[in-house]
Write a structure and sequence with these properties.
Elements lengths: L6 E6 L6 E6 L6 E5 L2 E6 L9 E4 L5 E10 L2 E8 L2 E2 L7 H28 L7 H22 L3 H18 L9 H35 L2
Antiparallel strand pairs: 1-2, 2-3, 3-4, 5-6, 6-7, 7-8
Helix pairs in contact: 1-2, 1-4, 2-3, 3-4
């Protein structure tokens, strides 16, 4: 009877060399956690990770391990050291920030594309003012995306305010009833940008802890 080859993944605390290694042969249904080459803990079934597996490591830090759903048919591990998600895990703060800033840049690009279509449409220039407005929107979201990638909480807070204001204006009786898809999309963006803010704060905490770890 053949056995699956264990999958090995490394999770680190940001840019530091503080890392743990997880070996699992079956999509994290079971596995082992190694710290400095020594087994720190293990689990034999998914139930052992509900709600989480808590391990005290040799340096006194507490590692929590959870198996979570990240896609419809894909599971990953949420691994945190003293409440801080590790790089590469399901709750990786860098991934939260990348998603938030990426969506800001996507909105900027989409707005610029709409402006281009409006300018090139055969309407004798009637859509030019609308195109100018969309170019301004594209520029605003582009700057916010650029600033967000540099860990600007203010940029993501401004984006939340703009999306919320736009949704409120679209919901006015005089503006007609916005589609359900539009409202769901706006809510999704607000949640995404909020997760980005959380990611920035967690990255700042990682930087602080990393500086402490580097001290002799």
């Amino acid at each position: 009877m053949s056995h699956a080859q264990p999958q090995q993944r490394t999770y680190c605390l940001g840019p530091t060399d503080w890392c743990v290694v997880v070996e699992s042969p079956d999509d994290f249904r079971s596995g082992q956690v190694f710290f400095h080459g020594v087994i720190a803990g293990s689990w034999g079934d998914p139930g052992s990770l509900r709600p989480s597996l808590s391990l005290t490591l040799g340096d006194g830090s507490v590692l929590t391990v959870r198996r979570v759903r990240v896609r419809a048919f894909r599971r990953d591990l949420d691994i945190q050291r003293n409440g801080i998600p590790l790089t590469g895990s399901a709750k990786d703060p860098a991934r939260k920030l990348a998603d938030a800033s990426g969506w800001l840049l996507f909105v900027a690009g989409l707005s610029a594309l709409i402006a281009l279509v409006a300018v090139t449409s055969p309407d004798d220039g009637r859509d030019v003012p609308y195109a100018i407005v969309m170019l301004v929107v594209a520029a605003i979201y582009g700057v916010l995306g650029w600033r967000a990638r540099r860990r600007s909480i203010a940029a993501l807070g401004t984006a939340i305010g703009l999306v919320t204001l736009n949704a409120l204006l679209a919901s006015r009786p005089t503006a007609g009833t916005p589609g359900l898809g539009y409202l769901v999309g706006a809510l999704g963006l607000v949640v995404m940008f909020g997760r980005g803010i959380v990611g920035i704060r967690q990255l700042a905490e990682i930087d602080r802890v990393a500086a402490d770890l580097k001290q002799p």
